[in-house]
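Retro notes (design track)

What went well: tokenization of the new backbones is finally stable.
What didn't: we kept losing track of which sequence belonged to which structure.
Fix going forward: every design gets posted as structure first, then sequence, in one message. First example under the new rule, 538 residues:
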């Protein structure tokens, strides 16, 4: 397997202005020799993050970006509130720098106040946290990243990247009883919405790539906002709007594993004046999916918050149509995040249209599921994971919809493992790539949880879920059993598993006709230049 079979070259990234692909002598658009560990669930991530931050000392560096930050969110019990933890680090002499989306007004159910308070708490302790509104109209900074560097102790360097924000609702575990510090969501999810999510912990040279990406945003000379009203609020609240200089970047950590990591982003084509590091935007996340899907032959496994946009899922549909043995398993939220006469149809119309297109291409080879906990409460799927043929894995902040691929800022990592899975003598994709340990283990970990299956003794017996067809059938059988038990009034013991067959509500033609234009303009906008839109290209 050649890395260029699955990963983007620097030319294919489509952004000559970024420093990411100029950092190595060979101009490789990825780094080799990393160790990547998936952290499934917010509680797992928060524990690891808390331990790593508390291990830092004076002169160390802590960089983070986020979509929303609630300063009172506890990472692990009393005294571990994220605002206090970051403030304590700054008080110890750790250099703390953060970029948090300024957000829209709170009356629109966003997080303007919380993000400002997190910044104020960090700044009061000696750190620096800027509220960043350098986005397209209606857009957001959606990247979720923490980078920890340790001068003189490079073995401790680590980066966390994925779908988990430093805010309420996220601190859930495998039991899916929800976060005790909850924000209200749709009534179906109850007072403490169960939450499913995934983050990556990365060690090795890729930490340097992720830091370089943070520095591009931090050093952007553009003002944090173009809005006169926002700039007036900045004056009233005496907000910090000038980014202080960062210390010089340290050499990348030494190789420490078998994982190749490619850092992928979305940046929109910002109107009037683009980003200095992406003048025409960057759509490497979308381009990476398009390239990887062309090699899909056996199984595409997706966990996604949205799976919206018929335009975006066309590349999945094309792969299904071109390969009669290819299957798709998708795990999505059973219900949209919010109720409402206007928001509910707009949230559903994109998914319904997308699933119709996928099923036209793949028929019974397409299976879509929601999750529920053992009490029967739906689990909100916030994860952004894709595994193709147990070879290529993508985890990050992007959702499979147009705004994540073109309009908002996003951050993903694609991972290829140099180690073949020992139980894969055959080639599931038929292209000679062979299943890889990281991709397969992540898919199996997620599948076992959803199926309520324990881990097999991998040293002696391969898991039946290794086979794509068996895995597809296991999901279908488990969901059918639980669906049937619920349809019978839940009589008798509850069958194992947490999977429910996804059935989107039916919308009338009138509702569809009224909702589709609003969906395209408001929910799923397009941040590509007009010339790319005309050519239907990323």
């Amino acid at each position: 397997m050649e890395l260029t079979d699955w990963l983007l070259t620097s030319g294919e990234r489509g952004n000559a202005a970024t420093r990411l692909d100029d950092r190595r002598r060979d101009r490789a658009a990825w780094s080799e020799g990393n160790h990547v560990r998936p952290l499934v669930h917010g509680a797992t991530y928060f524990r690891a993050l808390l331990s790593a931050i508390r291990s830092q000392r004076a002169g160390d560096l802590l960089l983070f970006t986020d979509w929303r930050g609630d300063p009172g969110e506890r990472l692990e019990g009393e005294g571990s509130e994220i605002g206090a933890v970051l403030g304590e680090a700054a008080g110890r002499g750790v250099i703390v720098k953060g970029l948090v989306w300024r957000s829209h007004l709170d009356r629109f159910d966003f997080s303007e106040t919380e993000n400002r308070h997190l910044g104020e708490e960090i700044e009061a302790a000696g750190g620096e946290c800027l509220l960043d509104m350098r986005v397209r109209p209606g857009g957001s900074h959606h990247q979720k990243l923490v980078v920890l560097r340790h001068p003189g102790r490079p073995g401790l360097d680590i980066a966390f990247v994925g779908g988990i924000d430093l805010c309420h609702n996220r601190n859930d575990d495998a039991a899916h009883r929800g976060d005790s510090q909850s924000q209200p969501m749709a009534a179906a999810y109850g007072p403490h919405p169960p939450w499913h999510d995934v983050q990556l912990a990365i060690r090795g040279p890729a930490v340097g790539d992720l830091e370089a990406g943070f520095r591009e945003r931090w050093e952007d000379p553009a003002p944090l906002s173009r809005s006169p009203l926002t700039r007036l609020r900045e004056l009233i609240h005496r907000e910090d709007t000038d980014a202080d200089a960062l210390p010089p970047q340290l050499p990348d950590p030494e190789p420490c594993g078998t994982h190749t990591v490619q850092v992928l982003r979305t940046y929109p084509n910002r109107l009037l004046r683009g980003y200095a590091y992406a003048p025409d935007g960057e759509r490497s996340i979308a381009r990476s999916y398009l390239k990887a899907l062309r090699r899909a032959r056996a199984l595409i496994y997706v966990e996604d918050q949205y799976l919206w946009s018929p335009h975006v899922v066309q590349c999945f549909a094309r792969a299904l149509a071109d390969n009669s043995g290819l299957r798709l398993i998708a795990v999505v939220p059973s219900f949209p995040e919010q109720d409402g006469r206007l928001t509910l149809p707009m949230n559903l119309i994109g998914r319904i249209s997308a699933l119709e297109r996928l099923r036209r291409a793949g028929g019974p080879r397409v299976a879509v599921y929601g999750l529920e906990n053992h009490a029967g409460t739906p689990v909100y799927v916030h994860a952004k994971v894709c595994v193709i043929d147990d070879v290529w894995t993508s985890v990050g902040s992007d959702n499979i919809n147009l705004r994540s691929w073109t309009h908002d800022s996003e951050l993903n990592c694609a991972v290829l493992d140099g180690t073949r899975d020992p139980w894969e003598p055959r080639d599931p994709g038929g292209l000679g790539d062979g299943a890889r340990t990281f991709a397969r283990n992540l898919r199996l970990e997620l599948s076992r949880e959803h199926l309520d299956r324990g881990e097999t003794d991998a040293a002696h017996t391969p898991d039946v879920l290794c086979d794509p067809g068996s895995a597809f059938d296991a999901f279908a059988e488990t969901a059918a059993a639980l669906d049937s038990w619920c349809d019978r009034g839940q009589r008798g013991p509850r069958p194992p598993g947490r999977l429910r067959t996804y059935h989107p509500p039916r919308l009338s033609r009138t509702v569809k006709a009224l909702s589709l234009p609003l969906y395209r303009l408001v929910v799923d906008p397009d941040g590509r230049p007009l010339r790319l839109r005309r050519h239907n290209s990323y």
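Added context from the reviewer: The first strand starts at residue 31 and ends at 40.
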